[in-house]
Design brief:
Chain lengths: 422, 159
């Protein structure tokens, strides 16, 4: 697969097939290493959020939220309820716009047999218009708190530089209410798409919070019994370099694992709002699911969840006396872990007594999924049939990879398909 | 909804700021200050992607301004009408697949305004400076004057 289309960034896939078995399979990432971890060394803590937001154009909020959590953890800063709520609203915006873009313009064409979103737009214009409406409300939520939707500048360590006005919140509340029907219709539409049974065993890893569907806060859990504080990440998860890719791979206790919407849904579906549970019961609740093709449905559900949550958190909005708490730097190490649209995003920062960065580790979700994607391809391509033509293998491989919505520009800190038939 | 939206598309980097800088120039033009918000909207957008279509739905006519790479000499001014918009052609704009993809999708979904005009300034590289290069700055001033005249003509004789 020379070029992987409809993913963020650049990547390629090389498969060696012998006696109808996959001898080797390598997902190669071409984007050069970003080296952000080194760039951040020597920086003052006040510069971090603006820098990490630029790691990814699609998920800047996630990077800012994980980083600020790590910084505040090190400096022993406590957020108040207003800040916690607004950070969750901020995150809702990013989930909505990222998931909407992925579902409508990247993934849906696969399931409907279209080569591109343009071909799909001719037959399903109203579906794509709905996607644009949902993406717009997501961008509006990010702009409400971040000042702008691309590389937002409104978040700071300790909270936000400026609180949204009551008027701007009232305007967006109305738009949120108008969007709920779109989100419901989207779930019904996605659940009606033809989906093959691709079920196979894998481990789902996500945050878990007993009080809410997790975005910003929680412990790290798996559906195989893991339950750890975010500070214990390095004891269980190992990142390593593979020779054929710029993106690092990650393993949990030596095994690939899944992060992202389906993993979150598998671990947290019991914490969905009642309205969503009822809707899913109507269509036949598929979660927990070991079918990666249910990832798109998980994203659609999360869009609806994020709209409901943003509305809940904003409906009694009051302008606070201050939109941030006092921050005093302190030496030490801090950890942050939040749920980017594509999955768990873990940060560890070490500071000196002045709040200058001494060392950083950033583990993005897409690199955590690299080993899982290769594991999935090994299973799925065999199930699909290795004797099929290279073109068919390419199309199917693209579809499998796109389930993960890989943000390859993050996964390098992303097709050309080459099939070697021996 | 405004009658005419003039949208400068850009990013903070070097020559890629030119769309925003043209908008800043237009905001200083005395002759345009008598127009109301319902008549004229001057907007700067940072890498809007598909979100651009939401802005285009709120206007009857749109003038888009962006950096462009066609192989012409540095600083060359370009101007294209709606009927000249071709996906391959528009892919030459500096927001590359972003703007071309967006306009093609807008056309496919019938979300583009009745009238749309693209203005571009030829660049060679984006750079990481906080301002455009001196050659591009001169073209920015020229383009702002052209667009000011086009705005005035629009309200005296709609296109």
């Amino acid at each position: 697969m020379p070029i992987l289309a409809r993913v963020e960034g650049e990547g390629a896939l090389e498969i060696t097939i012998s006696n109808n078995c996959i001898e080797s399979l390598q997902l190669k990432i071409f984007e050069p290493p970003r080296l952000f971890e080194k760039l951040l060394e020597g920086r003052d803590y006040t510069e971090i959020l603006d820098i990490v937001a630029r790691i990814c154009g699609i998920c800047p909020v996630a990077y800012q939220m994980s980083a600020t959590q790590a910084i505040e953890n090190c400096f022993n800063v406590s957020q108040n309820e207003w800040i916690s709520n607004m950070r969750r609203v901020f995150y809702c915006g990013e989930w909505i716009e990222s998931h909407s873009l992925h579902i409508h313009f990247l993934a849906a064409p696969d399931f409907l047999g279209f080569k591109s979103a343009f071909d799909m737009a001719n037959k399903y214009p109203d579906v794509l218009k709905r996607g644009l409406r949902l993406q717009a409300i997501g961008n509006a939520l990010v702009r409400l708190l971040g000042g702008r939707s691309v590389h937002p500048v409104g978040a700071c360590v300790g909270g936000f530089y400026k609180p949204p006005s009551l008027e701007s919140v009232q305007t967006i509340l109305k738009r949120l209410e108008e969007s709920l029907m779109d989100a419901e219709e989207l779930i019904k539409w996605v659940s009606s798409l033809p989906i093959e049974d691709n079920s196979h065993d894998f481990t789902s890893v996500s945050l878990f919070n007993p009080n809410e569907y997790p975005m910003n806060e929680g412990r790290i859990v798996s559906d195989k019994g893991l339950n750890i504080a975010i500070s214990e990440f390095e004891k269980h998860f190992v990142e390593f370099q593979v020779p054929y890719s710029n993106a690092l791979h990650a393993l949990l206790n030596g095994q690939p694992y899944l992060v992202g919407p389906l993993a979150r849904m598998n671990n947290n579906h019991q914490n969905l709002p009642t309205a969503i549970v009822k809707l899913l019961e109507q269509i036949g609740l598929p979660f927990p699911s070991n079918n990666m093709h249910h990832s798109m449905l998980a994203r659609a559900v999360e869009i609806y969840l994020a709209l409901i949550e943003a509305h809940r958190l904003l409906k009694n909005y009051l302008v606070p006396k201050s939109s941030f708490v006092e921050v005093k730097p302190a030496s030490g190490k801090g950890f942050g872990c939040t749920e980017a649209p594509r999955g768990l995003l873990w940060h560890a920062f070490e500071f000196d007594e002045k709040g200058v960065v001494k060392s950083v580790r950033i583990v993005p979700p897409t690199s955590q999924n690299q080993a899982r994607i290769e594991q999935d391809l090994r299973f799925s391509l065999v199930q699909f049939g290795l004797k099929k033509s290279d073109d068919l293998l390419r199309n199917y491989s693209e579809m499998i990879i796109r389930n993960y919505d890989p943000c390859i520009s993050c996964s390098t800190h992303f097709l050309s398909l080459r099939v070697n038939r021996l | 909804m405004s009658a005419l939206s003039v949208i400068g598309i850009g990013s903070p980097f070097g020559n890629d700021r030119l769309g925003w800088e043209v908008i800043d120039c237009l905001k200083q033009k005395k002759q345009l200050k008598y127009l109301t918000n319902e008549q004229l909207d001057l907007i700067s957008l940072d890498r809007p992607g598909l979100n651009l279509l939401n802005f285009l739905q709120n206007t009857q006519t749109a003038f888009l301004i962006d950096a462009l790479k066609t192989g012409a000499s540095l600083g060359t001014l370009h101007q294209y009408e709606k009927k000249e918009i071709d996906p391959q052609f528009v892919a030459d704009f500096s927001h590359d697949i972003g703007l071309g993809y967006t306009l093609k999708m807008g056309k496919t979904l019938n979300l583009l305004p009745n009238n749309i005009r693209l203005y571009g300034i030829e660049i060679n590289e984006v750079g990481f400076e906080s301002t455009p290069s001196e050659i591009i700055k001169k073209s920015i001033l020229k383009l702002a004057n052209i667009i000011e005249d086009d705005i005035i003509n629009y309200f005296s004789q709609p296109i």
